[in-house]
User: Fold these one by one.
Assistant:
Number 1:
Amino acid sequence: MNNQVIKVVKFGGSSLADAGQFQKVADIIKRDEARKFVVPSAPGKRFSGDTKVTDMLYGCYGIAEMGGEFLSMFEQIKERYREIICGLSLDYSLEDEFDTIQTNFIEKAGRDYAASRGEYLNGLILARYLGYDFIDPAKVIVFDENGRFNPEKTNEILSKELKKHETAVVPGFFGATESGRVVTFSRGGSDITGSIVARAAEATIYENWTDVSGFLMADPRVVENPKPIKTITYRELRELSYMGATVLHEDAIFPVRIAGIPINIRNTNAPEDAGTMIVPFAEAESGSIITGIAGRKGFCVIAIEKEMMNAELGFGRRVLQVLEDNGLSFEHLPSGVDTMCVVVNGKELEGKKDQVVNGICRAVEPESIAIHEGVALLAVVGRGMRNAKGTAAKIFRAITDASVNIRMIDQGSSELNIIIGVQEEDFEKAQRAIYAAFVK
Ligand code: ASP
């Protein structure tokens, strides 16, 4: 075990979009000497309407791959980095790196390679600016030949490597196969790298610095001025992220969860804010039963009715088989004695409705089957719900008082969340009503 306090800090694209942001980042890092390992994203948007370097790289490589004239676009990418270097008054040049990348684009090194150069170059500048070592993720973040991330091998190699460095920058978003082919995570994947580095470093905490002061209890576009969430458990966060809370990449939770390391979401532009702590376990905060509300539109409910359904062996399996045969996964499955509802993603069902309905009719011969479209799901999440009586009643009273019709109810077996289906046009109204009922 490690007794030293080590903090792994990840900075998102908007935190490193230009020289001014780099200075803020360096100030934050230098303020605490436990901040030893830094994971940067590629330069993000400097203002609304700006383009992220990652998107420029995808675009530029797309042209190169077709044999088109990509140099003028590549020049714009180089300019973004030159501006940062110049703005920081660094005596440093990336021109040789640019030449290598250009050659590799012509030789069609791959889309993932192209996108990864955004964090690679940003990492080189940041390491230089901080006076930290640079670790190339292609040597320490391991993917298999099918492009799947190998967590155990990575942890073995990376933890050994980190021990050789007092302080280091490890760019986010990518790694490589053992044969050296660069592979990226999905978009927003630097969050995952940060988590992987935190695990390998046996960090005390993983700080994820972004441009908001953590998670809010509800969507600020729907609820006016929602309160910030101080503490949330990994499991609660999974529920909220699935429903659309998007501050952190979903897969970033797994590596630190294995090691029980908390994540602290912080704001580079308001470093004094405490942000949100994401922890393995937590007592419910006094006075608050719910942790947050999130929701998504665009679901369809397939409602099936058949008397004595409960006694029919294999009923559910046959219904789900029809979905599987049509390449559909289900999101929720609330059921009654003689009814079964299958909630699916509306987009995925498009163009397949008749096939699915006919398939279910053949498979289980229901008395009735209907598809309700335009359903929104709302998840009310909170570790405090398990011990609080009357939470469900309070939610339904609030929704009913707002004259919203409830289409579906589903409580997860962990009693961590209650999911409510409403018509899409009632989505905002229902969310505001629940928030007002619980948050004073
Ligand atoms: N730069 C990558 C993206 O834009 C990865 C990241 O920022 O996490 O998705």
Number 2:
Amino acid sequence: MPVRRIRRAAVAAVAAPLLALSVTACGGDGDSNSNDAKVNTDASFAADTTMAKLNQAGAVTVGTKFDQPLFGLKNLQGVPEGFDVEIAKIVAAGLGVNPDKIKWVESVSANREPFIQQGRVDMVAATYTMNDKRKKVVDFAGPYYIAGQDIMVKKGNPLAIKGPKDLAGKRTCSVEGSTPAQNMRETYPQAKLVLFDVYSKCADALKNGQVDAVTTDNVILLGLVSKDKAAFEVVGKPFTKEPYGIGVKQGDAAFCGFINDTLRKAFADGRWTKAWDDTAGTVAGAAPPPPALGDCQ
Ligand code: GLU
């Protein structure tokens, strides 16, 4: 008996600091957890739905970015922060799942469809453009924001790049499996496309002169500039529309519809605006009007 008692005490001694650590992790980033209080503790869902399954499990697995400031950036506690993260927390709250029960899985651009298809994540919120090609393999709730492809160059724009046509012959960095990379290949094939798996590597390559420009969504680029204003600037003339959706398994119309309903409520009650203001809005300015939601098709 004494042995067991000692063991329990030892477990408690280990558990206590862990608990303290996780509390710090939640509290440490201040306002970005402002939606935590709105968890729907009375949520109940029709049996056999994804919502019921996640609600009963009290947990949800979300694919997001880990290296994109303002949208999904891992903090020092190892927890991602940003607008996508806040949107996922709003959906989790609607499911009755606490934010600290969200399992975050890094989903780089090329991994998003496979991770959804394989069931490695329940949903993806990761600067994820809704488009017809992707809709062949996954479904999208949303959009919850509309970005546009833009170009980031070295501070002072030494090569005088004003738009995508000026990228002809220039080493232009983007990310494998992204819509900007696809757009460059199809519409601006004269650019010398250099592809990495994540945008932070493109920023490094631009900084050390391995590439001449980085192209992706304007708000992603604004986030990269915000971390290194002395090194970079954004051209500031978006040339595509990138509606951000939440990817879910194809054919799960009930879950997709639930996410749209949750977004609709968050658009109306100020949670969406607050999520924006606390994250991307700190750099990108006031929230635009929320976009019109699609029909999960
Ligand atoms: N929104 C674009 C996409 O979904 C670019 C950003 C990204 O790669 O995450 O491909």
